[in-house]
Queue: 3 jobs
Job 1
Amino acid sequence: MCHWERCRRESCHELHPMSLDPSIEKKQHSQRATKYQRYFNVGRSGAGIDHCIYSSNSKPTRSMANQEHLDILKQGVTVWNAWREENLDVRPDLSRAKLSGAQLQQANLNEANLTGAHLQQANLKGANLTRAKLNRAYLNRAYLTEAKLNGANLTRANLNGANLTRAKLIDADLTGANLYKADLTRANFTGADLTRANLSEADLTRANLSEAKLEGANLEGTILQ
């Protein structure tokens, strides 16, 4: 019996524990029924997964990293990159992963989902993060020297104190990103969207800002040479 069917029967059993006066039964049925919520999720295979949650305030769980992908990454960059080469059609899901201080230099994270990932002080030197989803990611003091971030989604990402020296951020979306005191020396921001980004006290020495959008950006104390 599927989860939904079992839950439906259990619900009905509670809603009709005994025979009552029709008017009273109808009122109690209405009151109790509001406590039930059902969420129906359809996976890639098209099979339905039913969940009946006995709470009027329950919410669906927030997206988390694919544990298999995370386990492979934790085996090291060499193993990870080999796996990526063998599985070109897979888009890694590392959303909200705890990777603070991880050694990920030269890692192939092309098009990976790193939404909300914890990458504080991680070493991502030379990593391929092309078109990766890094929105709301925590990259405080991360080492991203020479990283490839072309077309990456970095909206509202925290890059406070991060090192992006010579990083490539062509057409990247950094709307609302926090780049306070970040080292952006020689970084390539061609066509990047830095709308409302916090660039205060950041070092943009010899950075390429051709066609970059800077509307509403905080440039207080920013080094521009």
Job 2
Amino acid sequence: MEILNYRNAESQSVDNSLIDVEILTDKFGWIPTTVNVLDDEQEPHTIQIKQWLVDNFDLIAAHVPHVPTQEELQAPINQDALEYLKSTDWYVTRRSDTGVAIPVDIDTYRAAAREAIVQG
């Protein structure tokens, strides 16, 4: 069996070790398959597909969408929350210096911003 092409490569893991891909073969046409590039004990045709994926990794990697990590997903949330807290810190300073209360909506949003921040 000769592998002629691939399509619809999609990573199923953060480290790109598990890839769903359709392989075009001379014998069977298009075959959907999932390949674990870290597993050495697979069917002979899967080993051949894996070797083809490894040999053509640079070509394939350019088309496999990146699966963001939890940290990457959380980063913009953390940034927005920290920016909001920074922009409203003066309310806390004013309360401390003068005793003027923080408006309820600002206090509520600040509490939500602190809860949204996840340290990774």
Job 3
Amino acid sequence: MTAQERSEDPHGPDIADRRQSWRDAQDYRPAWSLRAHTGSTSREKLGSLIGAAFGLVFVLINTSPLATAIAVPLRVLGVVAFLAVVIALRRPGPAAGTRAGGGDFSRRYWLVVAAEVLAIWFGLALLNGPLHTPHAAVAWVSSVVGAHFLALALVWRNPLFHWLGAALLGCGVVGLALAGRGTDLGLINLVGGVLPGAILLGFGLWGSTRGAGSSGPQGERPTGRRLRVRRPARRASRSSLPASRKTVR
């Protein structure tokens, strides 16, 4: 607001400056809001990369029992999808700034990973040993990975991982049921391994490109710039007021 506009304000220059200060305060966005948004974006990107890596391994390994005419195209699609995720994650994000490390790999995160490794090892030992059902191994791994993402959703407070974990866990349970009924190994690997791999790759691809057209929450452009709020000017003296504002005695 210019000096002329303040002088012409019917409520006087003091009220006009207070109004301008209030408008400047509305545009103020503290620096912690940028850090929180950047940290959330970093966790989503990290989760996308982890999911895509798991998905590629699932597809490459579990297509072995399938026919070559089916296995080769699936492997090629898996590699292409993973490369697309990596390329999308290497693109610079719309928001600048970094977040202090340590939050993404907390002790709870490593506890979840340790529990996942132990569950996979213990389950495979039972399936290959006393239970004599080694063909159910891939379905068991999918079930454990699904439970891993459910736990990771709580650690990272990301509700999207609930849906991913539930989908993987469902595929694993169906695969275990097929293995228990003595179904063909190719069908078990397709349901319990290839399908979860495709879900992970799709999730990674979606997560790596999510928010590319948005610069901040609710479409706003995040900014860490602190706007200086001007102090209200003192009431001008009578000599500085225009002739039209002077009181006629």
